[in-house]
Amino acid sequence: MSMEIIEQFQAKYPDVVEETHNHRGDATVRVKPDSWLQVFGFLKEEAGFDQWIDLTAADYLGREEGLPRFEVVVHLRRMKDGARIRVKARLAGPSPSIDTLSGVYKGANWMERECHEMYGIVFKGSPDLRPLLLYPEFKGFPLRKDYPIDQRQPRVPLLGSEVRRYSKAPDDTPHGHLAAEKKNV
Amino acid sequence: MNANHIMNTMEMEQELENDLLEITLGPSHPAMHGTIQMKVKLDGERVAFCDVEPGYLHRGFEKECEDHRWNQIFPYTDRLNYVSPIINNVAFAMAAEKLCGLEVPERCQYLRVILSEMCRITDHLTCLAAVVMELGAFTAFLYFVKARELYYDLLESVTGARLTYSWLRIGGARWDIPDGFVEQAKKAIPETRRILKEIDGLFTKNRIFLDRVVNVGVISQSDAISYGITGPFLRSTGVAYDVRKAHPYAVYDRFEFDIPVGENGDCFDRYRVRMAEMEQSLRILEQALPKIPGGPISVKDPKYTLPDKQAVYTTIEGTINHFKLIFDDIHPPKGEVYAAVEGGNGELGFYLVSDGGNKPVKCRCRPPCFPIMAALGGIITGHMLADIIPIFGSVNMIGGEMDR
Amino acid sequence: MGLEQKLSGVSYIATKAEFFINWARKWSLFQYPFVTACCGMEFMSTMCSHFDLARFGAEFPRFTPRQADFLIVVGTISHKQAPILRRVYQQMCVPKWVIAFGACASSGGFYDNYATVQGVDKVIPVDVFIPGCPPRPEMVLDGFMKLQAKIQAEKLDEHSAEKRYRMLP
What we know:
The complex is a heterotrimer.
Chain A: H1 2-12, E1 17-21, E2 28-31, H2 36-46, E3 51-59, E4 70-77, E5 84-91, E6 97-99, H3 108-119, E7 122-124, H4 179-184
Parallel strand pairs in A: 2-5, 6-7
Antiparallel strand pairs in A: 1-2, 3-4, 4-5
Chain B: H1 9-17, E1 21-25, E2 37-43, E3 46-53, H2 61-67, H3 74-78, H4 85-100, H5 106-134, H6 138-159, E4 168-169, E5 172-173, H7 181-203, H8 207-213, H9 221-227, H10 232-235, H11 243-246, H12 267-288, H13 309-314, H14 316-327, E6 335-342, E7 347-354, E8 362-366, H15 369-380, H16 388-395, H17 399-403
Antiparallel strand pairs in B: 1-2, 2-3, 4-5, 6-7, 7-8
Helix pairs in contact in B: 4-5, 5-6, 5-12, 5-16, 6-7, 7-12, 15-16
Chain C: H1 2-7, H2 12-26, E1 31-35, H3 39-47, E2 70-74, H4 82-91, E3 97-101, H5 103-107, E4 128-130, H6 137-152
Helix pairs in contact in C: 2-6, 3-6
């Protein structure tokens, strides 16, 4: 069902769509970030996707050459026949930004706030981008791949000592050994 | 205005009108379920403005998932919606199995449905218990918890734990149900119905309860859909959307059950929808329990399922297989999926991205109560201070799911 | 406080007074349940009919720290929540005790990340740790009985600034 919508959209705006796929039955389309509002205007008004499901982002640091690092992913659903669609956009660089969807769907604002504080993606035109789950003294964006998992920023001075036995390396060998240490063996 | 000017009544009213009292229903509050802060600006007794601040239970679920192997994520999913943990396990397992392209055996599908419905009953029991306790009915809280203990005992006999089960694995479940489970479950169903009937007699026509919850916390259908609200909150406005009927998963399409809907979208409709949903869950249990098929509990694929203990101890292939799965875990093929189930609060979805490795690149949980809390500020505005309690209780915000 | 310090450990009257004061304190504890997460469900089960906490005299929770005797920290404490926990502890009147309920309150549980305090004892001093994720209600009652044993064994001048209540940073 949703693949037809994507094909319809691709026919109407041919230079906006970058990639589409239907892996495991999930209709997905990746678009250029500048056309974000145009895409969602089409989806809401003409295609009838009225139910807001999800907005999130993913960090592909060092995984795919040739593509920008961050990807914003939105899931939508149509109430009348249950069709689902996934819309993505790739954003580059240390301070990525994209248009806000809070004018189009009401549920977008809180999810954008969470995305902003976790990844640092700025949603242009958003009515409210205060941190949602983290506290104002927290510096940095924890869900980025280069933020170490146990870098703590305590809000009150802690009693007792916090001796770190190890810090988990951001590589994916089963025991978390750093690749550099392996070379020394 | 100099100091000698004596204000007349009209001027005094104008002066006082600008004074909004700001109070904080702080994070450590009995009615805030422990973890929400609401900064409320009051005009007399009416709420003029409400700012909800979550995040006091943010435990870094997504970051932990990116750091752990696929099967190690199940204990983290248990603690998302901790009043119905099997449903979170089912959601994650379904998403990962969709990613891997696995077809789980029928026995496991039936057991997933049965245990999910038991967990849905415990979810609704806990939610209503908290609501009525905060409205002052402590005895009904004890009745609800008594009913909940029946299911904790049943689930403990299957999984070994009362609350955080981690019973499912990608490709099946950890182990099979014990003998006597079906008989014990069949005995629990009429007992639950008896307790629910008692509670229904206490509340549904109770004047005090009705005065506090009717026409309180109303939300319109179009607002609810635009916010992304699902579950009993949406069904109380009249929209009959249930993931079990709209996108059937496991073996839900083989059972007959209705979707209760409300009319006005107020707290009383949510109470009635939840009570009716418990009855429908009991109906599903009655249909499913006699029909559990035999067969294996997990997919018979050595890449995904641990081999039998006998094979591990006596054959070399079993030992190596066990070793590989424990130390290196599964490697789902590259891709991304989104799979959703009907949680206690609505559509619980998991968005998983894999790059062929043994840890997920992205594991996002779409919490059902998040959009409801986003809408809460708007719903509460205009009501009185005491109305915040039943409205917030009927949301059934679970901190683990909301803040992850 | 002054009289108790002068009398403590010295005479027959002091030991008898200790016995009765501690006996009265341990059987009439008013709890402040600082509930955040999943352990709250087991806390609810412990309080209700099956595993009754009321038979220990500790049934009625006081939802204000000014009226509570002991603070029971149930569930994970994140760094965002830590200042609130510390302020609640400071608002309680002496004598006061703390139970850390659950693995997350005792040591951070399995959330070893940027958001979680690795144990409530990094924020406030703790008397009894109850491990478990979540602990069974029987374990909670056992931990509670250990707290009662600790209270019974206290000296008269136990709750003084030198022995227990140094100022928190």
